Amino acid sequence: MRKLIVSTFLTLDGVMQAPGGPGEDDSGGFAHGGWSVNYWDEQMGQVMDEATSTSFDMVLGRKTYDIMAAHWPHAPEEAGAKTWNEATKYVASRSRPRLEWSNSVLIEGDAAEGIAALKKEDGPELQVHGSGNLIQTLLRDNLVDQYRLWVFPVVVGSGKRLFAEGTIPSGLKLVDSKVSATGVVIGTYEPAGEIVTGSFALD
Fold it and tell me: What strands lie across the sheet with 4-11, from one edge to the other?
């Protein structure tokens, strides 16, 4: 049994759309692509290196796969490229695309069923990067074992959110946290079951 880990950059108002640059994902008229770039610092690079320093496989939606496949195979000397290129990439897509990036595998049939089957296999952890639409499927089917959320001190007002409408209410447990010099809060969370409600009202 292996863990499935969602690793996501978020704005303070919960948007995960297009953190890396203009044109990354302009759907819905989103005009703030690249909102994460100017907050990057050395500590964040170290945290990312730690997360990718051990063996892992990736589970990706088609759009994120295409973005990464357009970059990493052509940047073999860039820091981290060897890790990304050597990882097995499991791709969820409603079509049957040609997957030309090395070690890429199409998830056949229903995505949730396919990913649930992958989790039952022996092997390294499964990391999900980007892939907003796919994450909504993972949330609905309770397939996420851990969240690594990087919350940036910026609000954009609209865009695709990690926890979109239709997310099943649940509690989370913070298991690790760091804050970068630029104010990015890097938190690691694990599911903690149903929400436990209460009241501050006195009897």
Answer: 104-106, 89-92, 56-61, 125-129, 4-11, 146-152, 185-191, 172-179
In a domain, 10, yes or no: yes
Q: Which domain, by its residues, includes 132? A: 4-180
User: Is residue 203 one of the residues assigned to a domain?
Assistant: no
- Residue 81 three-state SS: helix
The domain that holds 97 is classified in CATH as 3.40.430.10
- The dihedrals phi and psi of 151, each to the nearest 5 degrees, come to -100, 115
Quick: pLDDT tens for 20-52.
999 889 999 999 999 999 999 999 989 888 888
pLDDT greater than 90 at residue 92: yes
The per-residue pLDDT for range 156-199, each reduced to its tens digit, is 999 999 998 888 899 999 999 999 999 999 999 999 999 999 99
Query: Is residue 197 one of the residues assigned to a domain?
Result: no
CB of 148 within 8 A of CB of 9?
no
Complete DSSP assignment for 48-80: HHHHTSS-EEEEEEHHHHHHHHTTGGG-TTSTT
pTM of the shown model: 0.91
Domain total in the chain: 1
Residue 21 forms part of a structural domain: yes
CA distance 12 to 143: 24
